Amino acid sequence: MKQKLVSLLQQSVEILKSKGILDKKLNPTINVDHTRDTRHGDFSTNLAMVLAKPAATNPRQLAEKIISILPADPLVFKIELAGPGFINFFINADAQFQIIKQIHDEGRQFGLSKIGSGKKVQVEFVSANPTGPLHVGHGRGAAYGSAIADLLTAVGFDVSKEYYVNDAGRQMDILTTSVWLRYLEECGEVVTFPLNGYRGEYIRDIAFTLHKNRGNEYRRPSELVTENIPADETQGGDKEKHIDALIDRAKTLLGSSLYDDVFQAGLSVILGDIKQDLEEFGVTFEEWFSEKILMENGSIKEALKRLDNAGYLYKKDGATWFSSSQLGDDKDRVVVRDNGQVTYFASDIAYHMNKLDRGFDQVINIWGADHHGYIPRIRAAMQALGADESKLKVLLVQFAILFRGTEKLPMSTRSGDFVTLRQLRSEVGKDAARFFYVMRKSDQHMNFDLKLATSKTNENPVFYVQYAHARVCSVLRQLDEKGWKRDLLLGMDNLNLLDEEYELAIITTLSKYSETLERAALQYEPHLLIHFLRELANNFHTYYNAHQFLTEDATLRNARLNLICATKQILANGLSLLNINTPESM
RNA sequence: GCGCUUGUAGCUCAGCUGGAUAGAGCAUCGGCCUUCUAAGCCGAGGGUCGCAGGUUCGACUCCUGCCAAGCGUGCCA
Prior knowledge:
Oligomer: single chain
Structural class: alpha/beta
Strand order of the largest sheet: 7-6-5-11-12
CATH topology of the domain at 463-577: Isoleucyl-tRNA Synthetase, Domain 1
CATH architecture of the domain at 463-577: Orthogonal Bundle
Number of strands: 15
């Protein structure tokens, strides 16, 4: 409908040009919007006000000219000039009713589009270090990322979801050492656990299982473990030096093969847990991409070589630097440390090179907002590699601050003191959690009140939308109990009986579904879909309270049934797109 | 200090990329269940859109400068 009006206006602009009222070179973008107020009709354009200045006339006069030359269309039954120069369109009600038939015909397909035209898009998200269970902060990234991916799929992109597994580097060494130290405790050794180790209970569980399965194979006397290790911070030393020394000691005492066993024991348990957790949350990935493999197959070396060949690497203070400041970064960055180890940044360069080599038209990274400072250096690296950095889109998700009532909850992976995604799901359920996460704009700081989300009653907006769906189902059950049958065609032939204010409101909302979906996808703003669903549910509940659907009059009854079934269909389409259930009764 | 993000009702947040009288939920107050589920509906109160300028027919929206909050500013990841 919108497109139709745009093309009508386009024609008028051409006529104005040919009459010399408008400059031929002028090529205005024509804006047609849904009106907020029904008194302003169904659609409105600001075209006359935009063109008033170049046409050297006042907006209302120009608007009158536009209206007078606007080609007639059977769908438009009234055009009005209003306010400072708005042109308002009133759409023929019969035309509006078409949406009900269309929704019925297309069913679950309704609203999907092909605007993405099969372009290959990769969405990388969550990618939490496999050093512990996912917490509620990761949950937001998971919900947002999968919503983005599903929305893009719905509008015709070829989407691939990926989780980048940071299974290499120092954090994993700390994890491995933490597991090993807990394992030694299981064996009966007495060791002081480092301040900087992972202190969570799950580490003990892994250690317990390791001990149960492999006995004392990895046991070493505690004297050897702690001998000549620099003091921890609690003893007035440096906690980083302390843990690094313990890592080295673990590697020496165990040898690379046994050390790797402990490493694998930790990684497989934690990663398995993460996979299962996400799956239960309704989030799946096509690819779990291992950083370790990237390291082992020479990709990092290759990436560094390419940077070097392009003249972007230099040595300083024993380290190798990437001169990212030439390409818009604040300062240059180290890629190989003076001890010969590559930095996380180096493997990330290789990872992004790999992504682009895989031929995606667009690569979307969803990062926690605390990584925003990282964007310029990644872009710099992509430019240096000669890649098209405009293919990269980084979406930031602000952290959720957790509250329980007014009490702010701590969030620290290292101390093991955090609320897990699993806990959240078991407290509030998958549906509420997903809805809640995606309800807010992603770049908005979010206060997540567990007490509020836990209250299973009125405060969870997800129930409001689900209830609307369940209510329609309930009406259909009632229809059955009364011994009536739904007569689809009779209803469709009498849609013009739907002339109540609330009925027209629903129809208007329904007609916005497709464009809402498209906008939500292209702008990466799933909350728009949530807001749409709340509005539709609100329209429905209001209607439900004001009018009886199951009337004695079969024509009216069936017309209304068609309307509420279309509503049910759209609620179901929207909710299932967000991976939220659509209960038939509540 | 510099950079990014944010600032809208008592609280949590929308505001369709510059449009018409700034909206919703919660909370407060007042109504609606012998009639399709009251997890619902209707009504009332509540606003200097952080502050000050600027741009134009028009600014919550764009620009500049302040103020405030969060994050970043590692040879950590």
